[in-house]
Design brief:
- Helix content is 67%, strand content 1%.
- By secondary structure, the chain is mainly α.
- Helix 4 packs antiparallel against helix 5, helix 10 packs across helix 11 and helix 12 packs antiparallel against helix 15.
- The chain starts with a helix and ends in an 8-residue tail after the last helix.
- It comes from Exocentrus adspersus.
Length: 476
Amino acid sequence: MSQTFSKIIPVTSSIPTSCVDYVHPWTDSCLQAICGLYLYCMFDSLRVYGTVYMLTLLMKGRIPTKDDIKKTLYGIVQSTAFLSGTGFGYSLFLCSLRRLLGHFNILTVSAMPAFLASVFSILIERPSRRTLLALYVSNVATETVWNMAKSRNWVHNIRYGDVAIYSVSMALLLTYFKGGYHKNSDSMFRVLRFVVGPYEEKDYSTRSSQAGGFYRQHVQNNPNDGSRNRSGSWQARNKKNIVLHVVNQMLRVYKKLVYKIKCCDRHIACPHPFSCLYYTLAGAGKMFSIGLGIQISLKLVLNIKRIFQSPRNLKSILFKREMLNLASFLGAYSGLFRASLCILRRIRGKDSPSHALPAGLLAGLAFTRYPDTTVALYVMWKAAQITYNLGIDKGVFPKVPGFTEFLYCFSTAILFHAAILEPTNLRPSYWKFLHSISGGRIACMSRIPLDVWGLDTSESLKKVLAQTKTVPVVYF
């Protein structure tokens, strides 16, 4: 019980620690520490954003124009100024608040300096990127707050909790998508259109059954179209080459099977062409293939060194059960969603945007094949953002000026607070990012004066350094 209450720290609780003892023990000069962090942040930010923007430019798949190059260079400079400004402001406000108040307290050791630094730095970044940044840090901050509460035994992990979050959030987004609210052109709806197909959009242009009827008539009039050989010589060669003949026969059987599946029953309320069975299987097969291709590509890229060292490693890398996790998740999600909608249309005799809610909840069960807390939280925050924007458009919610910027600053303050006082509750990837962007300074800040608050801060830092294989060294 005493340990639990030791983690509930009054805001007024302060420590008479100097900047040298806590913030920058590697130098006695505040100015030198601030400038050193700013310069390193600037060069590392330039490296990060230079790579990101150049890859984005190359992914357009065309020769860049002068305007493209100018926008890319301007974006690199602006984003570099934003990220390096955060590091500069954080160090500046740490030392400034210490000199102003004469001590550190639970807020000024990290959270408040990070919040103030973020207020100024986020205004440097382009408005179009602020929402994306706010969603990202809110995602990580949500997980961090949960870990902080769990470490205090206030909450406990819920089995399949991430699946529930993902299912509810995706069901909400799919309802918006099917109801035609995606006309706001949010990037999330482009992803949904790719996964579940364009036929579920509101008032899709090819709702008639003409395509299916024409195909059915064409198959009936040409029953042997897929099995006819082009010439007698081609048939003779097939008999000589038994392997080619078997392959040709298999393709003919496959084509006939596809014909029959396409010509199965389709309900009049269904907006897709061909049969409901074909619609379901086609979506599941497409996404399964894409998921498998992504998984194989990632494995090959991440293990390219091992493959070059010994090609025999290729078998152990690719032939694993987990290689099918992403593929089975994407395939099952698309298939379950499409099948559920077709069943609901048959039961009710009509199509409705409300069908996407139960269909999305059922399809969300596929997330058990590839559970990921980061993805679940991102979808949750994305659903919250789109719901809020739709509420503003309909006059349900008031528009709060600067809410995106405030959310970013508040979430960043939580992350920096956790990085200093209880880094074991921080996502390891974010700790590595802070360690890299600060040149190791985040690990060199002395945690010994902070142990008085009973959070085992020094031990927590040692665990994180060992877990993430980072070192407390200042890189200049």
